[in-house]
Structure formats: structure tokens, C-alpha cells
């Protein structure tokens, strides 16, 4: 299966895609007044934690990543492709990645390989990645609490639509050619702590081992 991250230069380079238990519950509370777009971006990136669900679609495949970000250096959860899941976490300077397992596999059946992290959590987090594009936006068109703009990178033009809910960004949609990304942000400031699933087994990754990924 073609990796969705190869579809366009707009998509994340792709080290990890992750989320902890319960993070798929969407529930950003709407505040009485919505912040301006750039302020909402800053507020979201400055939050102590948030949950995110990212759906990436190309003509070849579709995958959904469930992630929790916890400042300053934790990211954890799973990526799901079809009925398979791969769990990946960055906690400080250590990376943990599971073998790919069927969805619904009990946590005490998970086996994680650990190794030195290849990148800090903030460099891998998808919300940090995509909201940087919003900070570069010009000629933004506002319609209520939704903002639309386009950016060109590497000869490709991405069409963005960003929704602000209260003080935070709650959704970002990106379309590039035949590929698309939907990022939904929720539980800002109230997400569960990032931690390995209860009962999981952790072993040191053998030299040269590349664990399976959810997109394979």
C-alpha cells in the first residue's frame, strides 16, 4: 500500500502518527467569543495538551491517526489503516513503537520496541506541523468562524479551510490535488496524560530493526 505521506510535499514527512486511549472523543467546548485566526493558532500551540484525529486520504489509501500531544515533549497513540493499528510514543528522548496489530488487541498483548528518539515530539506533532502553514497565510477569506486561504509549495497549491471554536483552532482541512487531510483538535487542556498502554511489554529495539508502520 502506498504511504499517504508520499502523496504530496504538503503532508508530514512522517516519523510517527499516534494517540492515547480516549483521545478520539471529540469535545472542544465552544467559548462565547471566537478568537481571531492567528490568535487561535497561538493559543492552540501554547496549550499544555490536546487531542487530535487526522484523516489522510489519497486515491491509493486512507489512514486515520489518533494523537495526544502533551507539552513539552510527549506524543503518543496510534495510527490505524484498515483494521490494523501501530502504536507509537515519544516520551522525552525515548521513542516506543509497537508491532502492527489488529484493532482491538488488548493492551497487555502489545509489545513495544524502544530506542533513542529520532526527532523531538514537537517536530513530529501533526498540529504543530499543519498550523505553521496557517501562520504563513495571506489573503485569508473569513466566513463566520471559518477561514479559507491557499498556499503554494514545491509547485503544488494547497487549499486550506480552518475553523476556530472559542479560543482555539478546532479543525483544519487541506486539499492538494487528489490528496486531502482533515485535522480535528479537541480536549484542549483536558486531554489524558501521554503514557504507554497498561500492561504493554517494552524491549530494547535490536540494532537495525525497523518496526512495522500503520501505513505498510
How does this model look, in words?
With 216 residues, the protein is mostly beta strands. The chain has one domain: outer membrane lipoprotein receptor (LolB), chain A, CATH 2.50.20.20. The protein has helices at 37-45, 121-124, 126-135; strands spanning 49-57, 62-70, 74-81, 84-91, 94-98, 101-102, 111-116, 141-143, 146-153, 156-165, 168-176, 179-186, 201-204. Strands 1, 2, 3, 4, 5, 6, 7, 8, 9, 10, 11, 12 and 13 form a 13-stranded mixed beta sheet that branches. Helix 1 runs antiparallel to helix 3 (126-135). The protein is globular. The N and C termini lie close together (6 Å).
How far the N terminus sits from the C terminus, by CA atoms, comes to: 6 Å
Number of domains: 1
CATH fold-level name: outer membrane lipoprotein receptor (LolB), chain A
Strand share of the residues? 35-45%
* Overall pLDDT metric: 84
Counting helices, strands and paired strands, the structural category is mainly beta
Q: Low-confidence spans: pLDDT under 50, at least 5 residues?
A: 1-10, 12-31, 210-216
The helix count comes to 3
Text of the CATH class: Mainly Beta
* Oligomeric form: single chain
Task: Work out the helicity level.
Answer: 10-25%
Do you know the CATH architecture? Answer: Clam
Note the main sheet.
13 strands, mixed
Amino acid at each position: 500500500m502506498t504511504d499517504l505521506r508520499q502523496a504530496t510535499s504538503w503532508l508530514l514527512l512522517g516519523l510517527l502518527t499516534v494517540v492515547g486511549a480516549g483521545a478520539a472523543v471529540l469535545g472542544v467546548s465552544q467559548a462565547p467569543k471566537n478568537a481571531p485566526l492567528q490568535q487561535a493558532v497561538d493559543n492552540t500551540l501554547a496549550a499544555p495538551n490536546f487531542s487530535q484525529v487526522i484523516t489522510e486520504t489519497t486515491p491509493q489509501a486512507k489512514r486515520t491517526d489518533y494523537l495526544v500531544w502533551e507539552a513539552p515533549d510527549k506524543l503518543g497513540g496510534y495510527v490505524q489503516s484498515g483494521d490494523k493499528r501501530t502504536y507509537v510514543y515519544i516520551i522525552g528522548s525515548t521513542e516506543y513503537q509497537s508491532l502492527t496489530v489488529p484493532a482491538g488487541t488488548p493492551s497487555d498483548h502489545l509489545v513495544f520496541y524502544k530506542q533513542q528518539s529520532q526527532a523531538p515530539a514537537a517536530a513530529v506533532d501533526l498540529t504543530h506541523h499543519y498550523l505553521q502553514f496557517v501562520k504563513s497565510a495571506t489573503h485569508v477569506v473569513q466566513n463566520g468562524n471559518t477561514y479559507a486561504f491557499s498556499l503554494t509549495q514545491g509547485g503544488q497549491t494547497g487549499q486550506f479551510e480552518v475553523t476556530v471554536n472559542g479560543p482555539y483552532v478546532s479543525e483544519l482541512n487541506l486539499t492538494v490535488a487528489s490528496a486531502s487531510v482533515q485535522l480535528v483538535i479537541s480536549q484542549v487542556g483536558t486531554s489524558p496524560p501521554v503514557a504507554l498502554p497498561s500492561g504493554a511489554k517494552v524491549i530494547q529495539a535490536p540494532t537495525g530493526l525497523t518496526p512495522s508502520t500503520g501505513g505498510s
